[in-house]
Design a protein that fits this description.
Arc Repressor Mutant, subunit A; 3 strands; homotetramer; alpha+beta
Chain lengths: 127, 127, 127, 127
């Protein structure tokens, strides 16, 4: 029995999270609930479910569907998440979440951090 | 400049989370803060830091060091995490966190779930 | 320009390979070409392309399409790979590769290895 | 018994490979054997073994230790791999492999590809 569970587990696979993102989500302005919510959307996207409902996401979390919807709204507004209109092979329109704004914020932070470190370094040398 | 950031990002690498765990941490009795805290410990372990302080972990989260220590205590007590005594090559003792209890709880849940599904299925057939 | 490349790179994501599989593919009877070919199929499956052609796979490798087809045939015959018939939401049949036989072989090997280690251990104790 | 195997498997963890690298290693000038050899070094590095011997690597592959050494030499010479001198906490020198040159080649290829696509696009428009 456990062998079948193991195979199913392997078929489900893994979600890869950049360690840089895991170490810096708070610096990007996210709290734990928001970060995990984005991970759930990431995971849904990877398994081909491009527009999960707040209900489906909340089902995997300790928050209520209405809190989940509120958090999604907040993430959309603050620019961590976006919804794009796509067209499938049969020319049927569908909506999908995209995490592209999150990646942009992460890269932005990377670059600013380097800038700040450089300035601090220069100031220390001048003192 | 961004090229160097990109290389550093690649060198840091990724943390792989089983999708089964991501979808079921609430069923294992964990909330978002506790789950993320375990992910941080997982990430520290992978980069060779076997016993991060509550301060070091809290630094990556939105919680205070004392709340972090409290949560770690709770996770140790409830059996999601353990501390083991190890010996390095120079026979110097050191402590390290282990996530083995978490994996055990996950496997246990996998097996019980199957059992429950089977019972429900039998009952439905009998009705 | 490199920022856009970076985002595209992040959107493509990662393939997670169990370290146990990476360390033991030769013990499962696979050579490097066969193992990489299975990784390519794994990656295609994850990105929703369930039945890549030998041409599409060979395009990512140093082998010719006909050698690729030959290797796929070999992997199917030796039981590392299987093709299953599926039905989509519109009741249209399609074929997809499945790596389930590979996972089964891996688990089988895990269990046999333990058995062999146990026997060796008993024999050593008896001597 | 299989439960313990499963836990051990989870503790070993996964190696994350960027899908972009998996799809483009041939364009970077690598064949399957060379690519897998780099993945083995990557995996050794992640588990804290910074300078595995050709013997230890060959042991996980279908090639002989001398072929393995030859391939490593080739990868060092062609700039996919480098050896750096490091110092541990006790001021003892040690050598470690670094995959930084591989990441540099990958980023280089990303940028050139974009350049080439752009030129082709301009030429097409001009025709």
């Amino acid at each position: 029995m456990i062998k079948d569970d193991f195979i199913q587990f392997l078929e489900e696979g893994n979600l890869s999270i950049p360690k840089f993102l895991l170490s810096n989500y708070t610096k990007l302005g996210l709290n734990e609930t928001e970060f995990i919510l984005l991970l759930h959307i990431h995971s849904f996207l990877e398994s081909g479910k491009t527009f999960p409902t707040p209900m489906e996401i909340a089902d995997l979390m300790t928050i209520s569907p209405s809190d989940c919807m509120e958090t999604i709204r907040h993430l959309l507004k603050k620019g961590y998440l976006t919804i794009s209109d796509e067209m499938d092979e049969l020319n049927i329109k569908y909506e999908r979440y995209s995490l592209q704004p999150l990646w942009e914020k992460m890269i932005q932070y990377m670059m600013e951090r380097k800038q700040i470190e450089k300035i601090q370094h220069t100031e220390e040398e001048e003192v």
